[in-house]
Design brief:
Blueprint lengths: L1 H19 L5 H7 L4 H13 L4 H33 L4 H15 L4 H16 L7 H5 L9 H5 L8 H11 L10 E3 L7 H4 L3 E5 L2 E4 L1
Antiparallel strand pairs: 1-3, 2-3
Helix pairs in contact: 1-3, 5-6, 6-9
């Protein structure tokens, strides 16, 4: 009998030491040290009198682990979303595209803005044009390709609607249906762009290949 009491006391001390050191197996220890239900209840009662709740501590640790996992998954999700939004383009190049779209399509609806952004990205992917956003926008071939580059409007910061439209284009949306150029018939007298194959009209812009 005395031996059994000593064993229980030593066991309680051992459990306390494990728990004080931050061990994560305290609940399992209490549940498996003895096959006798009365012994387990007595151990739990003694721990409770010492102000220790093994089950509660285990639950807190489990909740902390779950919270940490959720946080890590959220961070990974945000990182993935960010990569999808930028499609591999650096922030500087995206900012340039946003400013061009703002200058070229500030009077157009949201879809029209997405379409203008898409035409620039289509040029980047086209073998007949340069391979980056800055090179496409600043390309000089008997003159600059975009009016905002010539008149300085490209230096004006884009608004939030334009930024969202550019994000959509970077995600792959293309209302321009593969077009690589656009023009406003009421403003442009350029005969070359008017001779290009027609694709679609969105707002005030005609989109061509």
């Amino acid at each position: 009998m005395l031996k059994n009491i000593i064993y229980k006391r030593v066991l309680i001390i051992l459990i306390c030491v494990i728990m004080m050191s931050g061990g994560t197996m305290e609940a399992a220890t209490v549940g498996t040290v003895s096959g006798n239900q009365e012994d387990r209840e007595e151990i739990l009662l003694n721990l409770s009198q010492l102000g220790i709740n093994p089950s509660l501590r285990y639950m807190h640790k489990r909740e902390n682990i779950i919270e940490k996992m959720d946080k890590e998954n959220h961070q990974k999700s945000n990182k993935t979303k960010k990569e999808e939004d930028t499609a591999g383009y650096c922030r500087e190049h995206i900012d340039l595209l946003e400013r061009l779209v703002y200058a070229e399509a500030k009077g157009e609806n949201y879809t029209g803005k997405v379409a203008v952004a898409a035409t620039v990205l289509n040029r980047v992917e086209n073998a007949d044009y340069p391979d980056s956003i800055p090179e496409v926008i600043y390309e000089y071939n008997q003159g600059y390709q975009y009016c905002p580059v010539r008149n300085g409007e490209i230096n004006r910061a884009a608004d939030e609607i334009t930024k969202e439209a550019v994000k959509e284009a970077l995600r792959g949306r293309d209302p321009a249906q593969g077009a690589i150029s656009f023009y406003n018939p009421s403003k442009s007298l350029n005969q070359w762009i008017r001779s290009r194959p027609y694709v679609t009209t969105i707002g005030n812009h005609v989109f061509v290949r």
